[in-house]
Amino acid sequence: MIDVLSRKETDRLLERKARLSAWLAARPQLAARLRVLRTWQAERLARTYADLRADPQGEGAVDFFLTDLYGPRDFTRRDAELRRAWGVLRRTLPPFMRAVLALAIELEVLSEELDLDVARHLPPGQITPESYARAYRAAGRPEARRRQIELTLEVGRRLARAVRMPLVGRALRAARTPARMAGFGLLQDFLERGFAAFARMPSAAPLLAAIRERETAFMSSLLAGTPGDPVAAADGGPATAVNQKLPGGRRRPR
């Protein structure tokens, strides 16, 4: 289990995110390229997890990962809200949901920094699997990539545990009206969507195991420069381990 950052560490992370947002705002061309990259990556992730999203019980959790934790959406308003609200939320949120939010902050900042590294190495023009693989490899940072995967999994693990605790759900519902009246509605919605998504799943283990397997194989193949097309492999091709059996013995549909 990943340790949640301390209060001071999370405060520094929020400051780092604010500085990065300001730095990007002054570089509109790079910011636009970053948005294109994140859209391209979100489309890749949607294809990679289409089989799990087809399961009605897993659809909500996959969507939560692809849109609320990682995706091309503009999180500027949510980030600004979080910077205003964090001092209050530390005192009012149930500890389990406060931990989820802190982990999500770290994941968002790390993902944006890693994406920025890739965007800087991308050549002009349309992104292709080949140009993406070269830029990804040039950006490097394997330890940070592994941390990114582990943070994603830890958010899922903690949400899966939180939904088994009745008091957490009641406390989250009780916070709905005060949070929205205080102007923290986006954060409240984020936590409620995550909680609801995992509440519909009998077990989060198959989804989390698939994320670990597929994203680790995808990362390793790209960083190693494995022959073939690792992007296509992540979408169901034969080049990496992501096409192997899922938990429970099922194979990904082709």
Walk me through what this model shows.
The protein has 254 residues and is mostly helical. It has one domain. The chain contains 13 helices and no strands. The longest helix is centred in the middle third of the chain and has 27 residues, at 95-121.
The radius of gyration over CA amounts to: 18 Å
H/E topology pattern: HHHHHHHHHHHHH
Class derived from helix and strand content: mainly alpha
Percentage of residues assigned to helices: over 70%
**What low-confidence regions span 5 or more consecutive residues with pLDDT below 50?**
236-254
Tell me the β content.
under 5%
Whole-number total of structural domains: 1
Tally of strands: 0
The main β sheet shows up as: none
Shape: globular
Quote the average pLDDT.
79
Helical segment count: 13
End-to-end C-alpha gap:
33 Å
Task: Give me some keywords for this one.
254 residues, mainly alpha, disordered C terminus
Summarize the structure.
The protein is mainly alpha-helical and 254 residues long. It contains 13 helices and no strands.
What's the topology here?
Elements: H1 7-25, H2 28-48, H3 50-53, H4 56-69, H5 76-92, H6 95-121, H7 129-139, H8 142-162, H9 166-174, H10 176-181, H11 185-199, H12 205-224, H13 230-234
